[in-house]
Specification:
- By secondary structure, this protein is mainly beta.
- The radius of gyration is 21 Å and the shape is globular.
Length: 330
């Protein structure tokens, strides 16, 4: 066997050599350098939102059936389901926007009822305690806001909501569900996230601008302009606060542009790109840094592997594939 090539993605372009033959065989192999995976299953509906607690011992998940399930990561066993009202799957489906912990034994879920991608809907937010299956508090976001994402700060005091298309983000208290701050911008917002360890928030705009805010007084601290990049879809900040990952929308393939999803890593101190990944022809669903901020974990919608991208200069962007998935990532 002669090696043709290798790839970190699920695609490889190969030009057939100009060597006449009446017999040829091609063998494809795949390496996994990881521990075995464990499927966490509950019912037959997909989980569309999930989050770990602060120490990784618990995982909260939400599915279309209107159930929230908490998993013990040591025993890998599910809790009894937490129920949301007015959900009757499959006729009335819950479309989770986000789910996260708001205290040691409390969590919140945001969702709407209806078909995925519905243009106009009402967004609901419900708070749960671990000891009770029904929500102890709930409220609605403003009519027509059509939230597409939710994020909770590291101190679990605030939650920020990003509109499906709009210039305003909403920040609520996780204590009583009151509106804390409404921030408006000059261009539509595509993502807003809290820093993992600092009292800061990063807001990405459709024009390629990323603004940094102090969440104690909501004063703007800095601004980064990346207007030459493709349309931004999502961002993430490293735990040490030094790096920013920006995920760009999958471009339309032309004779001059490949249809590769692009993820850039920015050094926030120098405002320079330090890494660029163009390894997948499938949209990036999520990118998160590891706890030591020297690797980026990438999940792409139709790629069966989870990519771990080593950002350390001496490792020259080494990548590992740590898991296989069944079907599309949500």
């Amino acid at each position: 066997w002669n090696v043709i090539g290798s790839t970190q993605d699920s695609t490889f372009r190969w030009k057939v050599p100009n060597e006449p033959t009446d017999h040829a065989s091609i063998r494809v192999s795949q390496n996994f350098e990881a521990t075995s995976t464990k499927d966490l299953l509950y019912g037959s509906t997909k989980f569309h939102a999930l989050n770990f607690n602060s120490d990784g011992s618990k995982l909260i998940t939400a599915n279309e059936g209107g159930y929230l399930i908490e998993w013990d990561m040591l025993s890998q066993r599910p809790s009894s389901p937490y129920d949301l009202p007015d959900i009757s799957y499959p006729s009335r489906r819950m479309q989770p926007i986000g789910v996260d912990y708001i205290d040691i034994d409390k969590f919140a879920v945001s969702y709407f009822i209806g078909a995925k991608g519905a243009p106009i809907h009402t967004d609901y937010v419900a708070f749960f305690e671990r000891s009770t299956s029904d929500p102890y508090f709930s409220f609605n976001l403003p009519s027509g806001f059509n939230a597409k994402s939710m994020d909770v700060d590291s101190d679990m005091e605030y939650m920020v909501f990003v509109p499906g298309f709009g210039n305003t983000i909403l920040i609520y208290s996780t204590t009583d569900g009151s509106l804390v701050k409404e921030l408006s911008f000059r261009a539509p917002v595509v993502d807003a996230i809290f820093y993992p360890r600092d009292d800061k928030m990063a807001v990405a705009l459709i024009d390629g601008t990323i603004e940094i805010y102090d969440i104690n007084n909501y004063a703007q601290l800095d601004e980064y302009k990346f207007n030459r990049n493709p349309y931004l879809e999502s961002i993430s900040v490293s735990p040490n606060g030094q790096f920013l990952a920006i995920n760009c929308k999958l471009p339309i393939q032309t004779s001059h542009v490949s249809n590769k999803a692009v993820t850039h890593v920015i050094d926030l101190n120098t405002k320079q790109k330090v890494r660029t990944y163009r390894g997948s022809a499938s949209p990036t669903i999520k990118a998160e840094f590891n706890p030591t901020s020297n690797a980026l974990v990438l999940g792409n919608e139709e790629v069966p592997q989870i990519i771990v991208w080593d950002l350390a200069p001496q490792n020259n962007g080494l990548m590992n594939e740590i898991s296989a998935t069944n079907g599309s990532l949500t």
